[in-house]
Design a protein that fits this description.
mainly alpha, 477 residues, 2 domains, disordered N terminus, 20 helices, 84% helix
């Protein structure tokens, strides 16, 4: 019942994902034809370092803001004060970050990216990241207000701007990697401007200190988690850049871009079910009962694993069809990271679960533990297996910390899970990924393994049909 009520929002979010994600993938396919892997690697590293700086400056406010939004969302004046106080405070912090960077711009650019790159390269990427970060506060507001259509339209406009500006500069003006940098900067500045105009009547100078204090107290313990979280998700590429070269980072990132579509798909679904989880948890707390969200979550889980299954199983076909010869090493990366992204679905539930319990300190500790595991695995596997080792390290450490987080989340707030039901989708997913890896390393090109891949997909579809999931998904009544 709840799933059917949120079905319309799911379609809208997935439409936005299909368009925005498709444009990003298409953009990187074009980039692989015109830009060397080493240059793409430098751009990726610039985004990583900018993201770390911006993550620290935000002090975890986005998470606390999203949680406390539902405490005041029915009170217009209090909501206006909450939006304004959080947005202005974050803006001030980010301006300070840019001022500090500007003072040491040349030294920091040389240290992080090398002396052969223009110092404005990192500056423009940082500004674009700042704009993107501020826009997230307003996008979250649209999401939590269930203004899904407006959220989707604005997000799609941003994606088309990024794609259009970059392609024009790349193919017409012919300025190489700087076309991507300018596309990032211009599209995110326009995104923030559009959102600010949309919310201009909600901004006020009447700041409620108590409201902000409540958000700040929830958010502050998350600051190390946000910083190390960005660091953790990018650790594989950072170490690849340090031990290997920007070229390896570029190849790895192309593989990750395709695999990331799984995570983006989950995130699109998460925009529907995560607010629903919060509402259900508050409701169950009010009635002093044990939350049972299995029926609500399972359809989202099934379709998330379906996406991972398709990408992970057909990774060889994806690289052959879409990437140039310089990027053929990205194939196994797609399958290995598909395994990683499939496992972290539970993080989309465990995160709200722990934050609802106000266990933000525990969240930070678990993230720090995850970084330690990830760091050790990357140091062990990258020197031995290169980019494949980086992907394997990310997968192993990600699955490990997701499992640990699940255990702690259940101890603090027990939710009902039917593991027998969950096991079956994972079973077919592992078979599909195993066939993909066999295709890369052990089976000759003349063996028709693609037939077996198709069989796995068909059987998985039958599983969903037998459980009535496709009927629910396509029945709007």
């Amino acid at each position: 019942m709840i799933f059917n009520k949120t079905l319309e929002n799911s379609y809208l979010y997935l439409t936005q994902l299909a368009i925005s994600g498709g444009l990003v993938v298409l953009l990187f396919i074009l980039m692989s034809k015109y830009i060397q892997p080493s240059e793409i690697g430098l751009y990726v590293l610039a985004q990583i370092y900018s993201g770390i700086a911006v993550g620290i400056a935000n002090l975890g406010l986005l998470v606390g803001y999203e949680r406390n939004f539902f405490l005041v969302h029915k009170k217009d004046k209090k909501l206006d004060s909450l939006i304004s106080s959080v947005f202005y405070f974050a803006s001030l912090n980010l301006v300070l970050v840019f001022i500090i960077f500007s003072i040491y711009r040349e030294d920091m650019s040389n240290f992080l990216l090398g002396k052969n790159i223009d110092e404005d390269f990192l500056s423009f990427v940082l500004i674009g990241t700042i704009f993107s970060s501020l826009a997230q506060y307003l996008l979250v507001t649209l999401k939590n207000q269930s203004k899904v259509l407006k959220y989707v339209i604005i997000s799609i406009i941003n994606s088309f701007l990024y794609f259009g500006v970059t392609v024009f500069l790349l193919l017409v003006i012919d300025i190489g990697i700087m076309s991507v940098v300018y596309g990032w900067l211009i599209s995110n500045s326009m995104l923030l401007l559009i959102l600010y105009i949309e919310f201009r009547q909600r901004f006020t100078i009447d700041i409620d200190r108590n409201l902000f204090k409540d958000v700040f107290l929830v958010s502050l313990p998350l600051t190390p988690k946000v910083f190390f979280g960005v660091f953790n998700t990018q650790l594989d590429k950072i170490i690849l850049g340090l031990i290997g070269s920007p070229m390896l980072v570029g190849i790895y990132h192309l593989g990750q871009t395709f695999a990331m579509s799984i995570f983006q798909f989950m995130t699109a679904l998460g925009k529907v079910f995560q607010p629903g989880i919060y509402r259900m948890l508050f409701e169950y707390e009010m009635h002093k009962s044990t939350p049972d969200i299995q029926g609500y979550i399972y359809p989202f889980f099934y379709f998330s694993i379906l996406m991972a299954l398709i990408i992970g199983t057909f990774s060889r076909e994806i690289t052959f069809l879409f990437l140039s010869d310089d990027y053929m090493g990205a194939g196994p990366i797609i399958t290995i990271l598909a395994i990683y992204y499939s496992a972290i679905f539970f993080g989309k539930v465990n995160g709200p679960q722990l934050i609802f319990c106000k266990k933000t300190g525990l969240v930070t500790i678990l993230f720090l533990l995850g970084i330690i595991i990830n760091f050790i695995m990357n140091l062990l596997l990258i020197p031995l297996y290169g980019i494949n080792g980086a992907a394997a390290a990310t997968a192993v450490s990600g699955i490990a910390i997701t499992s640990i987080t699940f255990i702690f989340a259940q101890k603090n707030l027990k939710l009902f899970w039917s593991f027998r039901k969950i096991f079956l989708p994972y079973y077919f997913f592992i078979i599909g990924c195993s066939l993909s890896m066999l295709d890369f390393y052990f089976i000759g090109e003349n063996f028709p393994i693609i037939i077996f891949k198709i069989i796995v997909i068909v059987v998985y579809f039958y599983l969903g049909k037998n459980q009535g999931l496709f009927k629910a998904a396509f029945n709007r009544s």
